[in-house]
Amino acid sequence: MDPKPPQLQDENPPKIPSNPTQNHIRFSNTTTADKCNFDPFHQRRRKLERFMDTFRTVVIKIASSGGPLTAARQMLIEERLRDFFTDFHTPDHPTYSAMINRAIRDLNEEGGSSEESISEFIRKQFDDLPWAHSTLLKHHLRKLCECGDSR
């Protein structure tokens, strides 16, 4: 049985005293970004991927119960599954923490990088980003800050 994740106290990031660099984020180094190993988004994603793999196996097993499947028939079934479940597609970009750290390192902006400049860098460098990129970016920036990986 999987342990239940702790409930998040506050969905909003903590208020930072007003100053001109409050929207800029700096990370101390790129190796500490992955130290915070509780990430509910990725935990749910892994569970969904396991479910989809199991579902795919069951569908193929049922389809082949009348006899062996031809390669063309199996390919058609898998294509239909991908059409129906778009999450069968696995993105080929690195993790958000890795993309964020690379953006901050490569941008090397004085005073830190803004969320907008990080997002623009990631969009230019990586294809196949999810439609909810900006929301995911905010989530991962907040998580990296909460884990103490920013200064």
UniProtKB/TrEMBL annotation:
GO molecular function, one example? double-stranded DNA binding
Q: Give the UniProt entry's GO cellular component terms.
A: nucleolus; nucleosome
Keyword Glycosyltransferase present in the record's keywords: the answer is no
Keywords carried by this UniProt record: DNA-binding, Nucleus
Query: Is this entry keyworded Transport?
Result: no
Q: Where is this chain's protein located in or outside the cell? A: Nucleus
Q: Where is this region: Disordered?
A: 1-24
User: Which InterPro entries does this entry report, sorted A to Z?
Assistant: Histone_H1/H5_H15, WH-like_DNA-bd_sf, WH_DNA-bd_sf
Q: Name one GO biological process term.
A: negative regulation of DNA recombination
**Source taxon at top rank:** Eukaryota
User: What main location does UniProt list?
Assistant: nucleus
The residues covered by the H15 domain are: 92-151
Against PANTHER family, the record matches this protein to: H15 DOMAIN-CONTAINING PROTEIN, HISTONE H1
Query: What is the name of the protein in this document?
Result: H15 domain-containing protein
